[in-house]
Design brief:
With 323 residues, the chain is mostly helical. Helices cover 59% and strands 4% of the residues. Strands 1-2-3 form a three-stranded antiparallel β-sheet. Helix 7 runs parallel beside helix 11. The longest helix has 51 residues. Keywords: Coiled coil. Pfam families: RAB3A-like_C. GO terms for molecular function: guanyl-nucleotide exchange factor activity.
Length: 323
């Protein structure tokens, strides 16, 4: 074996004690690669010829020792190179493939990481969507509850006169200014006629006709001098006498009917009655012409009820003093 061969060579070439170095020499261990090992060479210095007797025997011994050194050098060099080359692929305990795997992750690892990230993002999106669905469901319940409360409130408001509400809905589908329709006929009987009923019935009828035809005008008297008017207009009243009631009142307004040039002075009480009826006719005329678009049928009916309330207060004598 290799060990026996080395031991035999060492014993054959054993040095004398006189040839050993006087001081120990230590070399620091260092691992060599293939390139360095291949460049190793062993140099054996030929010993100086001895000048003593037995020159021939000494030369023969030196030649044999030199041959042994060369054989040992070639054997060790070949064994070392073979061992170093065999282990060169893993000289630091790591192969090239291992280093490559450490430097860059494999395609499978990248795919797994991307898949895990997509799973996390999908789970997050699903949680957010679930929260939004719950919020939408809650808002939908609130909307349904508010709608139900509004319906109940509307029903309670219109419970007293549900027949008038139904009549208004029918009139709203086909609006008309004909006083004979059920909706307007009831308002005429309960509000319009009582408001425009005055002592001077002939003038009161003319006022109602002008209101229906939208030809009545009202203007304040102010502090200007009284204008010259026809005798018939003066007979129906003056600045100190109401033309509709015949009572002595301070008249701050006067009315003009259609194309007539006559002016009739009216008291604040009569003026408020006339204006409340005019406001009602103006609103239902807007509905007939399709100008009321921002309100639904319930809001329209509520506005009609407010205008009827003003006519009711006017016929009872409630009006603002500044009128």
């Amino acid at each position: 074996t290799l060990l026996h061969l080395l031991l035999r060579t060492f014993l054959a070439n054993a040095l004398d004690v006189s040839e050993l170095p006087t001081q120990p020499v230590y070399s620091s261990p260092r691992r060599l690669n293939c390139a360095e090992i291949s460049s190793i060479s062993f140099h054996v210095t030929d010993p100086a010829p001895c000048s003593t007797s037995g020159v021939t025997a000494g030369l023969t011994k030196l030649t044999t020792r030199k041959d042994n050194y060369n054989a040992e050098r070639e054997f060790l060099q070949g064994a070392t190179i073979t061992e170093a080359c065999d282990g060169s692929d893993d000289i630091f305990g790591l192969s090239t493939d291992s280093l490559s795997r450490l430097r860059s992750p494999s395609v499978l690892e990248v795919r797994e990481k991307g898949y895990e990230r997509l799973k996390e993002e999908l789970a997050k999106a699903q949680r957010e969507l679930k929260l939004k669905d719950e919020e939408c469901e809650r808002l939908s319940k609130v909307r349904d509850q508010l709608g139900q409360e509004l319906e109940e409130l509307t029903a309670s408001l219109f419970e007293a006169d549900l027949s008038l509400y139904n009549e208004f809905r029918l009139w709203k589908d086909e609006p008309t200014m004909d006083r004979t329709c059920p909706f307007l006929d009831k308002i005429y009987q309960e509000d319009i006629f009582p408001c425009l009923t005055f002592s001077k019935s002939e003038l009161a009828s003319a006022v109602l006709e002008a209101v229906e035809n939208n030809t009545l005008s009202i203007e304040p008297v102010g502090l200007q001098p009284i204008r010259f008017v026809k005798a018939s207009a003066v007979e129906c009243g003056g600045p100190k006498k109401c033309a509709l009631t015949g009572q002595s009142k301070s008249c701050k307004h006067r009315i003009k009917l259609g194309d007539s040039s006559n002016y009739y002075y009216i008291s604040p009480f009569c003026r408020y009655r006339i204006t409340s009826v005019c406001n009602f006719f103006t609103y239902i005329r807007y509905i007939q012409q399709g100008l009321v678009k921002q309100q639904d049928v319930d809001q329209m009916f509520w506005e009609v009820m407010q205008l009827r309330k003003e006519m009711s207060l006017a016929k009872l004598g409630y009006f603002k003093e500044e009128l």
